[in-house]
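[Q] Does anyone have a clean structure-token version of this?
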Amino acid sequence: MDHFAALRALRTIVEAGSFSAAAERQGTTHSAMSRQLRQLEEHLQVRLLDRNSRRLSLTEAGREYYGEAVGLLDRLDAADDRARAGQAQPSGRLRISVPQVVASQELPHWLPAFLARYPQVSLDLSADDQLVDIVGGGFDLALRIAPSLPDSQLVARELARCPRILVAAPAYLARHGLPRQVADLQQHALLGFSPTAASAPWHLHGPRAATATIDAGQRLRVDATPALYAAVLAGMGISLFTALTVQEDLRAGRLVRVLPAWHGGQRCYFALYPHARALAPKVRALIDHLATHYAAWRSG
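[A] Here you go.
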């Protein structure tokens, strides 16, 4: 007896409702389907189906066994799909959504290498700080930066976790001085980000579990992170960014970290994608590429 063939026969018979309909679905004969079920019952030494002239019904033992069999077959199908996907060459158009700051500041660090590695993949990239409908918008993947994510029907893979830090341009600090303690921030131009018209105070965390809430954005508040980044680089004031966003600027001396003992909370980078029994090779390739890229931050 081919055990998996017998399990598939049982599933098809139950789903189709009759031996004849099941045989038609599998492209075989009524007698072949009946024989597979009989062999399975003989192997188990238990009756799985009650048969009469009008309908088929699972026995009590059959219902329990059928549920286990369906779960096993689904897992086997998923494993087959993953193996096939792993061998397929990533290709086709990939539609992704990323925050504006990733598009403007971080994309150069991972996108060119991805496109060079997978020349048969092309990208449609949408940069938006508003939450988009990933499924309704036809996106294959979205990159999100957030403290956490609400429960949803999407799959979320955490790529990195890093603090938001205070930074300013050397020119600004040369004119206005370097804050020495958190209270000094009130004497500085604090550039705020808010996607709405409402103010968004900074909730800072410091040594020995100290906290401080600071009003920001009195001189300038923007709803687009690239504009905020440009303003900070231009020496207009101090602002908060994820450490990943500004790490190259800190190394190059274009920005300076302010109050290194304080931070504005942790932010996580997530890859979000719709549930799928098997990811398309192009999607899996990008997720793996991002995971490798951001692993450098994790290990650092």
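[Q] Thanks! Anything notable?
[A] Residues 60-87 form the longest helix (28 residues).
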